[in-house]
Amino acid sequence: VFQLSLPLNFLGSVYRELRQALIDMETMFNLQGVHANIKDKPDAKLLQLTAHGAELRFENVVFGYHPDRPILKGINFVVPAGKKVAVVGPSGCGKSTLLRLLFRFYDPQSGNVYVDNQNIRDVTVDSLRSHIGVVPQETALFNTTIKRNIQYGRVNASDEEVIQAAKRAQIHDAIMKLPDQYETKVGERGLMLSGGEKQRVALSRAILKGSPIMFFDEATSALDTHTEQGLLSNIRSILHERGGTSIFVAHRLRTIADADEIIVLKDGQIAEQGRHEDLLKRDGIYRHISWLMTLGACATGASTSTSNSLA
Ligand code: ATP
């Protein structure tokens, strides 16, 4: 077993590094305005948002990475502008896939996704992605200073804006303790940050980006309860200030219990949908998994896999 597991572990870490590199590339592509798979239509328009925020709508969305293995089998839901929706469901049911479709790394095989009534197939990929802030479960750090890493959220942000974002993401104090503070080199060849610190760097980036749509994919899963609670309340007030629309993929009750709507995905479909209190009253899946969530168990897809990242 040992002989076998060693090369597998090794391959696993090579695979992770490769993935990481791909994620970095994707972000770099975004920064340079280049995108890998999806091409703009010749007459693609810029995504235009109304003043009061962005409504998201998934309409009959069918999608599989391989056409003969559908992951989403007809998904319909709306996130009204300024509202918070949480998505829960077993590992591998397609929660992160929703993000990849919204971000347009892929197009659905059928059905459509709309942002403020504009089909995302009809708008430029750049204008779409510029409106969406993502805080992934696993964050790619570049081999550069922590300041530059945060600035990837908005490359022309001032030092003061970077610091403000880091403060709201509750990572400023930790940065001030680093050898060169904001100028400390981090990433593969620099200082390694913990999973929770990386998540807060990602959150700083997203705060700096200032997007009206925010997608949190297990974004606080590596934090301890105390830090997570403080951060969730900061996130809440940031979203409130902006009238931001948000989707949370999460496996802890405190992250999702205040959502305006909770969507329970199962077998490619929405099995249940409603507010926390209403779902608890039903004798359904949500009630069944919610006590496991209270215990912090991984009933809803908190896996050790890397499948939550964007790439
Ligand atoms: P988890 O909670 O474990 O992160 P998830 O609900 O977010 O899971 P997804 O990452 O959306 O699940 O993946 C849905 C399914 O699609 C899984 O079975 C996964 O193995 C598969 N999948 C994900 N990415 C790809 C890909 N690039 N190519 C092929 N299959 C993929």
From TrEMBL:
Residues 56-292 form the ABC transporter domain. It comes from the Eukaryota. It is found in: Mitochondrion inner membrane. Homodimer. Belongs to the ABC transporter superfamily. ABCB family. Heavy Metal importer (TC 3.A.1.210) subfamily. This is Iron-sulfur clusters transporter ATM1, mitochondrial. It comes from Lunasporangiospora selenospora. The gene is ATM1. The chain holds residues 477 to 787 of 1068 of the full protein.
